[in-house]
């Protein structure tokens, strides 16, 4: 944080000097790293630009930073070594790694989410608020009982939980599977990580529906994969586009979220699902089906069968409890051919990414209680009401100004705005107005669209969201005039 201690006896410019030196010593600013421009620093510190200039002059005199006309201000690489007692060029290593850090917008959103303020409206988080998580008791097991339960766990997870998931998938979707085809993971992202690391190799091409939350995950880039956008229409991914991508790039795997797709909320039609399964089987391209939202269908809506039910051999199915039980229950599962499950389970064991028995026993207990179905029904009612409250607010405050399709389930509303956002930084206007939303660029598209998550919005907050967006549109239109 670039924040000064206002009650300090030290002059402001020296506080700035100390703060920058401390960031260098702690490794928050690295050798040759560029500092923000003077004007931006002044805004961040809430001081006059002349105060910042004086602080930078002092740092320059101490040889802590280097200032060059036209090039900006950077950390002096040689001086940095004196502070930290190191000469290793860590910047080189940081830029060589496969991990891609979150963009500044995401980092700032995370900071604002943690601020305990009634001013900030969170329409960005994809997690349930505490009051919507299950109100059920945890199983009263002794420490010895948990140790005993571990005897029923192997590399693929806790067997009773796998049997419960097998039963539920059969009841809900008519999917015939066996426990040895089910792999328990610590959430959907671990399943995706293992797939990209163990079933693909660097340089392989993958097709990902666009827009998609997959584009906000760094694991695809970390695995060295070549990512190609697979366009969608209202019925789902466009099959002719997939065929073209395969012939041009030899796509090795397709990643889709066909039910209450994140961020659009769309549901792939049954006809399109059958076409997708057919073309992928013909081209011998495995499909990864991410399905965290199926159980969050509106009470009056019917959703098509999962892709996994249409083709049990060529589809890797990922399910999760985090959208139903809250983010603290990091339990997911992967259903696939036995050989694939064994390979991924062995790989996880070798990586020492083992899964604790505690959340598995808890999840199995919750899934087998009568209260679970009651919780689902209550969750459906609350989500439907909050969705309708948000749409009602948009229709009342933004009539004929924003475009969206009413989702039949899930958490999200995908909203197209009637203005232009020329750069990623333009979306900071939402943060400046204390409204947290997820811009389209995070999902792989350049249009002026935002994902508004209604799961956390009370009726008054939904109306406030619409009012803030209206004010932002007025400001943007004035800029364009």
TrEMBL record:
Signal peptide: none annotated. GO terms for molecular function: DNA binding; DNA-binding transcription factor activity; pyridoxal phosphate binding; transaminase activity. Keywords: Aminotransferase, DNA-binding, Pyridoxal phosphate, Transcription, Transcription regulation, Transferase. CDD domains: AAT_like (cd00609), WHTH_GntR (cd07377). The keyword 4Fe-4S does not apply. Its cofactor is pyridoxal 5'-phosphate. In the C-terminal section; belongs to the class-I pyridoxal-phosphate-dependent aminotransferase family. This is PLP-dependent aminotransferase family protein. It comes from Listeria monocytogenes. The lineage of its organism: Bacteria, Bacillati, Bacillota, Bacilli, Bacillales.
């Amino acid at each position: 944080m670039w924040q000064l201690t206002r009650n300090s006896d030290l002059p402001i410019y020296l506080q700035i000097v100390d703060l920058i030196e401390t960031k260098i010593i702690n490794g928050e600013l690295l050798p040759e790293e560029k500092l923000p421009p003077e004007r931006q620093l002044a805004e961040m510190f809430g001081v006059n630009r002349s105060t910042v200039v004086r602080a930078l002059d002092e740092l320059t005199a101490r040889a802590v930073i280097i200032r060059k006309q036209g090039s900006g201000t950077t950390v002096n690489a040689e001086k940095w070594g004196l502070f930290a007692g190191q000469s290793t060029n860590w910047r080189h290593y940081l830029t060589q790694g496969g991990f891609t850090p979150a963009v500044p917008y995401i980092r700032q959103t995370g900071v604002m989410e943690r601020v305990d303020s009634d001013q900030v409206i969170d329409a960005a988080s994809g997690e349930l608020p505490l009051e919507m998580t299950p109100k059920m008791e945890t199983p009263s097991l002794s420490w010895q009982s948990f140790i005993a339960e571990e005897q029923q766990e192997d590399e693929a997870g806790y067997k009773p939980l796998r049997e419960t998931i097998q039963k539920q998938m059969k009841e809900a979707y008519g999917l015939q599977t066996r426990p040895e085809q089910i792999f328990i993971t610590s959430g959907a992202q671990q399943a995706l990580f293992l797939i990209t690391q163990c079933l693909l190799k660097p340089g392989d091409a993958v097709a990902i529906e666009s827009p998609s939350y997959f584009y906000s995950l760094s694991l695809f880039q970390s695995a060295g994969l070549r990512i190609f956008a697979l366009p969608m229409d209202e019925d789902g991914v466009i099959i002719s586009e997939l065929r073209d991508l395969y012939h041009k790039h030899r796509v090795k795997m397709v990643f889709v979220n066909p039910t209450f797709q994140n961020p659009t909320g769309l549901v792939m039609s049954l006809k399109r699902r059958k076409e997708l399964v057919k073309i992928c089987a013909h081209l011998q391209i495995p499909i990864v089906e991410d399905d965290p939202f199926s159980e969050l269908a509106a009470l009056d809506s019917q959703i098509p069968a999962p892709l996994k039910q249409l083709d049990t051999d060529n589809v890797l199915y990922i399910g999760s409890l985090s959208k139903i039980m809250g983010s603290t229950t990091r339990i997911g599962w992967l259903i696939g051919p036995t050989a694939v499950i064994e390979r991924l389970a062995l790989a996880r064991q070798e990586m020492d990414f083992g899964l604790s028995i505690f959340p598995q026993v808890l999840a199995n207990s919750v899934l087998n209680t009568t209260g679970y179905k009651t919780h689902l029904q209550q969750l459906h009612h609350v989500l439907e009401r909050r969705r309708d409250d948000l749409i009602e607010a948009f229709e009342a405050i933004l009539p004929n100004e924003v475009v969206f399709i009413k989702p039949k389930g899930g958490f999200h509303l995908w909203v197209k705005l009637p203005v232009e956002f020329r750069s990623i930084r333009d979306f900071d206007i939402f943060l400046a107005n204390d409204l947290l939303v997820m811009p389209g660029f995070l999902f792989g598209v350049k249009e002026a669209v935002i994902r508004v998550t209604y799961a956390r919005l009370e009726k008054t907050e939904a109306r406030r969201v619409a009012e803030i967006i209206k004010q932002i549109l007025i400001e943007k239109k004035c800029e364009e005039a």
